[in-house]
């Protein structure tokens, strides 16, 4: 049996990488624009932005779950039904987005009081958040749009839509913040305008497909099933990373700074590797939908090889940059002194991460969200969290925290490889009925 051509994988992964990177790059622009207003608006943006981003991160099932379901239907030659999954995901995104909007207006003040207490910083964050959350339905519609388009292997239009929206925001932000004198609120308005435009482009693409646009509760209920598992999986990630930040914050200022530098690099490379996972999702889902089980299983190991090679290359590159790159981020000697305690864990984990992300994509494409949920919760509860809090109790410092992260990744690697070697995930057919749990 022939291998999936590498060009096909690249054709899906490269546009996905640009889409994934667009938002973090815009956040950097937003931060630079608001940063010129002073420390108080910047702090407000940081707190409001973190809260809004965390909420959106829990709802990415609208993208990943929709891709899994749409890809199978597309592989089975049922493109209209694949697009129909996008219609229902868009209805679901709209409904959930309105709920998030309303809760954001009501809970913005209490949430900031809990995070930072009363004061000027909380006031600035609430002011930004109450405007920014108006864009929640549009952010979620965009997630759903990305999901169904990846499922039908259309990666060009999402690239155009997301870059257009973020480009518009990058232009509007300095104009509204500085030229129009709106300050921090101008940043939030620019976000909402851009999110509205991007969502409108995805909605127009859906309308142009000529499929029925009526809501179908039966399909939305099925999407919520896979969504529940992916939300729980995402919460496990958040519990781990928030616990790590909390423990580091109780060590030293230098350790906090070092963790921030290395963790942000880790997050950036995760985006790079996730583009490969998105390609794997689309291809595996289509292969299983078409009944080509052996092709899906063969491709699972093919994309694992790509992930391993990619991870090794990244590890070698960042090992070579160990003496140079940290100084780009800081000149503080206390921070620089702590960075090696995390840096070499970060470097050595890249090959592991390459395989983990690739196999994540394979199992997501197969609709095996239940297994991914269970193994992630187990890896967090058994490997990560005990080591993190032992690090705090025994004063192991930054090295202890990154030992916990390493254990988490290795535990996930073992679980993913074990599952992929089995036959339980590779059920064929046009629907993502839950695979066996064995």
From TrEMBL:
Gene Ontology CC terms: plasma membrane
GO MF term set: antiporter activity; xenobiotic transmembrane transporter activity
Keywords: Cell membrane, Membrane, Transmembrane, Transmembrane helix, Transport
InterPro entries named in the record: DinF-like (IPR044644), MATE_fam (IPR002528), MdtK-like (IPR048279)
Cellular location(s): Cell membrane
Residues annotated as transmembrane: 45-65, 86-108, 128-147, 159-182, 188-206, 230-253, 265-291, 303-322, 342-364, 371-390, 396-417
Bilayer topology: Multi-pass membrane protein
Family the entry assigns: Belongs to the multi antimicrobial extrusion (MATE) (TC 2.A.66.1) family.
Protein name according to UniProt: Putative MATE family efflux protein
Source species: Saccharothrix violaceirubra
